[in-house]
Amino acid sequence: MARTNQLSKEKRVAIITLTNEGQSVQKIAKTLNVSPSAVAKNIKRYNETGSHEDCPRKGRPRVTSAAEDKFIRVTSLRNRRLTAAQIRDQLNATQSSSSRHISRTTDKRRLHESGLHGQVAARKPLLRRGNKQKRFVWANKHKEWTLDQWKSVLGSDESKFEIFGSNRLVFVRRRKGEWMDSTCLVPTVKHGGGGVMVSGCFAGDTVGDLFKIEGILNQHGYHSILQRHAIPSGLRLVGPSFIFQQDNDPKHTSMFSVISHFFVKYIIPCVHS
């Protein structure tokens, strides 16, 4: 059975102080955010020993020191891809003159105590600093939008699904809430290897047409997708007032595509008014 955490000395002193003031066990437990049983046990122990110091505990003493625990934690945070065995080897290398060596199991236990658990790294497209800044500005500009406003947006993009490619899992060690932390990601880039390119769109919780792209998509092919798939999907899912959203891909921002967007924004509403 795992050892339970002891109350700090400060809380033990506070329990006895509040007890001497005549407060009940339940009230003391609520005030100090501890269990009533812990309060009762502490009062009983103090009455028997007259001391707030830790009692000797049974079991094997802790193998690592506070400095070694910090070394394990900091080493993992500096390189999230290090395994427990690699961190153990680094720690033991610093103690070459000592006969005591830390095991991999102990190293993993200390990492878990620090909230660092081995997980499969999330994959995310590689972003440069400028890309991140532009996304941050865009997010701030639209952070006050309502749900109805977002439902009027027709999002569209192309995606390539690799048929032949590496699906090797990469393990990292991360804490709760660090799933998308840059040090815990595996950057991905678009590359060859055989695959299927498709174009799709969605609005709210519904999806529009999915079109398979043959060959290399240029501005003329993109214009054809807008006319035959994106615009009809927007009219069907949202109505004539839909807002078309895309990224800054060159074929999306060419003059040919700008004319198509003018058609989406101004001509369609007039036709349906």
TrEMBL record:
UniProtKB keywords: Paired box
Biased composition (Polar residues): 91-100
Annotated source species: Esox lucius (Northern pike)
SUPFAM superfamilies cross-referenced by the UniProt entry: Homeodomain-like
Biased amino acid composition, Basic and acidic residues: 104-115
Name of the protein: Paired domain-containing protein
Every Paired domain range: 1-112
GO biological process, one term: regulation of DNA-templated transcription
Pfam family, one: HTH_Tnp_Tc3_2
Region span, Disordered: 91-122
The organism's taxonomic lineage, starting at the top: Eukaryota, Metazoa, Chordata, Craniata, Vertebrata
GO molecular function: DNA binding
